[in-house]
Write a structure and sequence with these properties.
Blueprint lengths: L13 H32 L13 H14 L4 H14 L18 H15 L2 H7 L5 H26 L8 E6 L6 E6 L3 E5 L2 H14 L8 H6 L1 E10 L10 E5 L2 H18 L8 H12 L8 E6 L3 E6 L7 H17 L18
Parallel strand pairs: 4-7
Antiparallel strand pairs: 1-2, 2-3, 4-5, 6-7
Amino acid sequence: MNANSSTILVKDSPVAENLASLAIALSNAMRPAWRLANQRRADLAGERQLLPAWHRATKDDVKAGCELIRQKMGSAEPFVDAVKAMRVIHGEISDWVDLDHDFHAVKTWGEMIERAAPAIGLLLDPAETFERLTSFDWQRASEAATMASFIAQTAILMGPPRKDGRLPEDCKIRQRMEPGKTILVVEVVGETVLGRGDHIASAVDRAIDNNMTLREPGDLTETDFIRLTHVVNVEIGRGKTGTSKTGPRRLLARDASDLDRLRALLGQVYDTQSSFEPLGERKAWIDQSVKNLLASAFDTPFKSLWIPGGGHLVLNAGASDVTDHVLIAMHRDFVEQKQKGGEVIATSMPRNRNWVGA
C-alpha cells in the first residue's frame, strides 16, 4: 500500500540517452587502461601489488576497450557532438547539478570535452596507447565520463517531473559523501533536501513522494493517496506494557514489524522537516514522536493522520485490514473538505512541530 514509486527511464530525451550510452561505453573502455597504467607505475616504483594476478588488467583487456570505442564511436566526434547537443537541449550542468555541494570535479561542458576527447583519441590508436599509458591522466578523463553519465541520467529521470510539477522546476541534484562515512548518497535539493537515495532514481522517487506529502491530501489523486499511505496495526492497552489493569488507555504496536514501519515513517518525516528547522537528535525525535502517537487510545477502528514529509498514517486498531476501498473513502473526505474550504483539523498536522503527534 505504501510501495515505493518506480521511476522509469522515459523515452523523451534521446539526446540525454545518447550521451549516457556513450559515457558508459567510454568509462568501461578506459577502466582496463587506467588499471594497467597504475599497475605499471607501481611496478616501476617497486610497490607491492594489492590485486591478485587474475584481477590485474592485461594488454588484451586494453585492446578490448579500444575495440569497444572503435565500434561505439570511431572518433571523439560523436561524444563531442553529444555533449554540445546536451548543452543546447538541456542547458548548463549547473542547471541540473548543485555544483557548490557536489563532489564531481567537472563543472562545465567545455571541461568535459577537454578531459574526455584526448582519452578517446588515445584508445583509438592502440599502437600509441601502450607507449603513453603510464603518462596519460586517466583519472581526469574518467571523471569527465562519470559526470557525463550522471548529468545525462539526471536529465532523463528528473526532467519529466520538473516539467509536470511533481518536482520544483528549479530543483537540482548532488552526490556527496555521508559525513563520517565512506558512503555516497544522491540528493535532490530545492530550498531544502527533497529526497535522498543511493542512486539517482531512488532519490528522485523519494523527492517526488516528499513533495507530494507537503501538499494537502485533497490535492492528490486516489492512486497517489493510497501509495503514500502507511498502515500501522495497533492494540489498546493500559500502562507501559499494555497489560496493566489500571492507568490511562494507550496504544501499542501489534508486533515488531508495525513498530519498525512506524519508526521508518517518522525517520522520513524527520529527514524532511529537519530541512526546515532544527529538530535535535534524530533517534530522540523519533522516540518522542512514537511515544506521542501511541499515548492516547481511540474508540474507532482506526485513526487517520496526514503528516507533511511522511504521508498518510493510519493507526489500525480494528480486526480487519485497511483496504483500498476504505482508503478511497478517506481520500474522498479530504477532497470534500478541501472543496468546502474547511480546514482538515483532525487529520492534518502543521509542518513545523517539535514532535509528531504533539
